[in-house]
Amino acid sequence: MDLIITAFLAYLLGSVPFGIVTARAFGLGDLRQIGSGNIGATNVLRTGNKLAAFLTLLGDSGKGALAVLLARLIFGEAAAGIAALFAMLGHLYPIFLKFKGGKGVATFLGTLLALSFPTGLLACATWLIVALITRYSSLSALVAALLAPLYAVFFYHLHGAILLTLLTMLIFFKHRENIERLKEGTESKIGKKR
User: Fold this and answer.
1) N or C end of the chain: which has fewer CB within 10 A?
2) 14, 67 in Cβ contact below 8 A?
3) What is the C-alpha separation between 172 and 141, in angstroms, rounded?
């Protein structure tokens, strides 16, 4: 019952669309009609409003971290893993947006930092390094997600690495169109309006 409650509440928390809320608060319009149509921080950045993009990043990563930390505090480590998974599912398939959500990168990194800070820090550093070199947010996310389970083997534990492998698969699934654009050389770079 504890894990069911954790899953339900983490999903609801993950479903909060901070990009939509932030865009409306800043008068940027409906984020789903802007740029890529995605509800995440990268698309908010395409509006040119860096503060709104930062707040979206903070909200999306924070909800993942909060779900994990509260679940661990109340129910223990097993619940923390369940919270990470369902917070991610909430962001990817939010009930508040008819199950049409974002791509989960910020929420993934937030849950990861809360699950295992060293693992999360390495994944964030990987994202940053790839982003600085390539200027592709999607590629940075894919590389960071791909390496996260490997980091977890050394700095978290095997069960955590298995969980992160599942989350990585979700990240890759949600980025399948980005992967095609990367192959074709048509993917937008960070900060570029489309």
Assistant:
1) N
2) yes
3) 9
Q: Identify whether 18 is part of a domain.
A: yes
Asked, for residue 155, whether it belongs to a domain, the answer is yes
- Tokens 């409003």 label which residue? 49
Domain of 178, in residue numbers = 2-184
Q: In the structure, what pLDDT confidence band is assigned to residue 69 with cuts at 50, 70 and 90? A: very high
Whether pTM > 0.85 for this model: the answer is yes
CA distance 83 to 15: 13
Domain count, the chain: 1
Cα–Cα separations (whole angstroms), residue 107 to 2, 90, 91, 182: 22, 10, 7, 22
- Give residue 179's Cα distance to chain centre: 17
Concatenated DSSP letters of 68-118: HHHHHHHH-HHHHHHHHHHHHHHHHS-GGGTT-----HHHHHHHHHHH-HH
CA distance linking residue 24 with residue 77, whole number of Å: 36
For the segment 140-161, the average pLDDT, to the nearest whole number, is: 94
